[in-house]
Amino acid sequence: MKKIMSGGVSATLGLGLCFLVTSVGAQNAPTASDGIAKYREMIADGNPAELYEAEGEQLWKKAAGSKNATLEKCDLGLGAGVVKGAAAQLPRYFKDTNRVQDLESRLMTCMEVLQGIDPKEIVDAPFGKGAKKAVEAVVAYVVTSSRDMKINAPMKHPKEKEMYALGKRAFYYRGGAMDFSCASCHDDASKRIRLQDLPDLTSAKGAALGWGYWPAYRVSSGEFWTMQRRLNDCYRQQRFPYPNYVSDVTIALSTYLAANAKGGVMHTPGLKR
């Protein structure tokens, strides 16, 4: 009888110990997010976005358009020709256009005014092709010059505040075949898709994780994606009609995200799945 009881206690203790070890092991086991983070770390030094950056720098300094001029006098908000830190302070209000502009729409203004390039050529071109591809390359060059800087989009001008309010409204607007909104995926840090955690873009930390890593090189498509393209694809996934390139709604959403991310760090160009 003692042997039977002793054996039973031993078995119970053994099972308990096994369960404890398994539980601890499960808690310490790498998650899918850990694996994705490790993968990004491994290939970060060879981010293919560097190729787009190099091309963008050449285009910035190359005379083009009907006016045969460069973009070296383009004012991105910090003065004519100043690239360093400019992307960290966009979107912002520009007096010459009387509009709040993101990086892509501002570059289009410079290309039109300085070089004589028709904006319609850029708007009508597919992403990654034609005149739009040139804008995307220059975007890669400009955002790289703000890497590791603090996100500090201004929010003082009435039009900047107006754009923020419009962006917030667009973020929560539900519609389309799926009755989705941006908030359906991005207003709670506990959500994820395809094993990836989705940042809560309504919080400072989450917005910095989102805004601070875009534009980015998409490994799955083998292309550099600007923020305009990222937002376009978000609307596709919501089953909304595609927004017009550099439309007010996309700039408003960018204003909302950048303002929420204020104080975070720019890691652009990022590296995404």
Give, in spatial order, the strands making up the sheet with the most strands: 6-5-7
Oligomer: single chain
Parts with pLDDT < 50 across at least 5 consecutive residues? 1-27
- Domains (count): 1
First-residue to last-residue Cα separation: 62 Å
User: What is the count of helical runs?
Assistant: 11
What name is given to the CATH topology?
Cytochrome Bc1 Complex, Chain D, domain 2
The main β sheet shows up as: 3 strands, mixed
Strand elements, count: 7
**Order of secondary-structure elements:** HHHEEHHHHHEEHEEHHE
Structural class: mainly alpha
Mean pLDDT: 86
Name given to the CATH architecture: Orthogonal Bundle
Strand share of the residues?
Answer: 5-15%
Name the helicity range.
40-55%
In short:
The chain is 50% helix and 7% strand.
General description of the model:
- Helix 10 (227-237) crosses helix 11 (248-260).
- The chain is 50% helix and 7% strand.
- The chain has helices at residues 2-28, 32-43, 49-61, 103-115, 119-124, 130-144, 158-172, 183-186, 204-211, 227-237, 248-260; strands at 92-94, 99-101, 192-193, 196-197, 216-218, 223-225, 270-272.
- The longest helix has 27 residues, at 2-28.
- The protein has a single domain (48-272), classed as Cytochrome Bc1 Complex, Chain D, domain 2, CATH 1.10.760.10.
- The chain has 273 residues and is mostly helical.
